[in-house]
Design a protein that fits this description.
CATH topology of the largest domain: Glutamine Phosphoribosylpyrophosphate, subunit 1, domain 1
Mean pLDDT: 84
Strand content: 15-25%
Low-confidence stretches: 1-30, 486-493, 500-531
Helix content: 25-40%
Number of helices: 19
CATH class of the largest domain: Alpha Beta
Distance between the termini: 43 Å
CATH superfamily of the largest domain: Aminohydrolase, N-terminal nucleophile (Ntn) domain
Structural class: alpha+beta
Largest sheet: 7 strands, antiparallel
């Protein structure tokens, strides 16, 4: 059972619709998928209903997080902020949106990776600087040195109201020297290690920041009215009628206001390490990242998979919805017909209502219904994006056999996941990962498949059209683009729930660059007057 927050976090707000026993969201997970942590969205458009645009932007990014949602707006003076647990559609209605006025907004939809699923950790967060005034922050990613930074700041008297690494980013920026937010965040970036794509809101400006390795996606769009949009994915730009301009570059700070868009990219260049799972699973197939269509990339993964692991079969099916493009690619390459064999109940995967024992025993049957008339008497190739623990794949194989499949050949359009992720993806511990404990043949026997094939790492890179030196594939290889502290790696999600309690904080670990490398020309920064 997760522990309650530390008593030092005495300003945490009361929670709604949460477990009375723990104070945490009582969420049912039926699947065995990786869970992305967040989606961020921002709008600067004086002639638009920015709250409504942000709502629909978050709606398009709902796949990136379903635990909480929030929107912050400003009219040039006041910050208006609403955060709620649950989906975007349940967090906002017409009345609440009508109260979020202004010319600019940011929004956030969250799946927790550092900090538990609590309302106090919902974003955007409000932060207050004694000289610059308020700022709202929305964060996608995971800062791997957040715990020692938290301990260092707390020792200096900084008060924390949440247990997330996102507040550490903001409080570190406030504690950094600088006459404006750009200088402060640039200095903070020299101390941060890990993944962060940020949307920030001041009374007069919208800011977008991406970490020097560009681990998580972030892009810029333009509305027909002339307004600007920033988003975790390009699919949300299309939803609100904006056209794609470009991606936020690695280590770049983008500032948008009445004077237009200004870019600052003064940090030393680092090796690029975009998370390869954005291509495999996380991002929507209608998004484009690094000029690569995700639908096309996933279809290419299926083609590569068919070349590497052919099988004699009658039909190819995909586990909906994420594996559908790869299943189509496998079919096109192999010449074996593609068809639907599983129908997904898209509203059962995450619920705040706990099932009774009978429904728990039904397990995967809550999420998928098979089509026996399609499967009966057939040799089936079933394509999926990944196997984490194996707790979903085995029931799917059993479901297909009960529906009459004579053979079931499982094909995975990613390599075997044998290591956890510490950069913004909620994965199992290493000892829980089935590929860490078993060989491919052992996994095939465990899940009851006639055969099992994973896409190779070179095949994945070929399908994506990106070199391995430009992507983070640590969950497959154990080679991460940043150092991972072992204490953080042991239980990183709740690491800061215990600060000041019975687990001593990790010693501060400074990761500063020479300040001359990140010093800014204050005269050319247009946000110095954000008071």
């Amino acid at each position: 059972m997760e522990r309650a927050a530390s008593a030092t976090h005495n300003s945490i707000r009361p929670l709604d619709n949460l477990s009375s026993e723990t104070g945490y969201a009582a969420t049912l997970y039926i699947d065995d998928k990786l869970h992305e942590e967040c989606g961020v969205f921002g709008v600067w458009a004086p002639d638009e209903d920015v709250a409504r645009l942000t709502y629909f932007g978050l709606y398009a990014l709902q796949h990136r997080g379903q635990e909480s949602a929030g929107i912050a707006t400003t009219d040039g003076e006041t910050l208006m902020l609403r955060t709620r647990m649950g989906l975007v559609s349940t967090a906002f209605d017409e009345e609440s949106l009508s109260g979020l006025k202004g010319h600019a907004a940011i929004g956030h939809t969250r799946y927790s990776t550092t900090g538990s699923s609590r309302l106090c950790n919902a974003q955007p967060l409000r932060l207050d600087d004694p000289n610059l005034g308020w700022l709202a922050l929305a964060h996608n990613g995971n800062v791997t040195n957040a715990e020692p930074l938290h301990a260092e700041l707390a020792a200096e008297g900084v008060n924390f109201e949440t247990t997330s690494d996102s507040e550490v980013i903001g409080k570190l920026a406030i504690a950094s020297h600088g006459a404006n937010w750009v200088t402060k965040y640039r200095r903070a970036m020299s101390r941060l290690t890990g993944a962060y794509s940020l949307a920030l809101l001041t009374p007069t400006h919208l800011l977008a920041i991406r970490d020097p390795m560009a681990i998580r996606p972030l892009c810029i769009g333009r509305l027909p009215s002339g307004g600007w949009v920033v988003s975790s994915e390009s699919c949300a730009l299309m939803t609100v009628g904006a056209h794609f301009i470009r991606e936020v570059e690695a280590g770049e700070i983008v500032i948008i206001g009445a004077e237009g868009l200004t870019s600052y990219a003064d940090l030393p260049k680092a090796e690029q390490a975009l998370c390869v799972f954005e291509y495999i699973y996380f991002a929507r197939p209608d998004s484009v990242i690094n000029k690569v269509s995700l639908y096309t990339a996933r279809q290419n993964m299926g083609r590569e998979l068919a070349r590497e692991h052919p099988a004699e079969a009658d039909i190819v099916i995909g586990v909906p919805d994420s594996a559908t493009p790869a299943a189509i690619g496998y079919s096109l390459q192999s010449g074996i017909p593609y068809t639907e064999g599983l129908i997904k109940n898209r509203y059962i995967g995450r619920t705040f209502i706990q099932p009774d024992q009978h429904l728990r025993e039904r397990g995967i049957g809550l999420k998928f219904n098979p089509l026996p008339e399609v499967l009966s008497g057939k040799r089936v190739i079933v394509v999926d994006d990944s196997i984490v623990r194996g707790t979903t794949t085995k029931p799917i194989v059993e479901l297909l056999r009960r529906s009459g499949a004579t053979e079931v050949h499982v094909r995975i359009h990613s390599p075997a996941m044998s290591h956890p992720c510490y950069l913004g993806v909620d994965t199992a511990r290493r000892e829980e990962l089935i590929a860490h404990r078993m060989s491919v043949e052992e996994i095939a026997r465990h899940i009851g498949a006639d055969s099992l094939g994973y896409l190779s790492l070179p095949g994945l890179f070929s399908a994506v059209g990106q070199g391995g030196d430009q992507l983070c594939s640590g969950c497959f290889t154990g080679n991460y683009p940043v150092p991972v502290q072992m204490e953080f790696a042991t239980d990183h999600k709740l690491a800061m729930e215990y600060v000041g309690e019975d687990k001593p904080p990790a010693p501060p670990r400074r990761l500063e660059l020479d300040v001359d490398q990140v010093e800014m020309d204050l005269d050319r920064i247009p946000v110095g007057a954000d008071h």
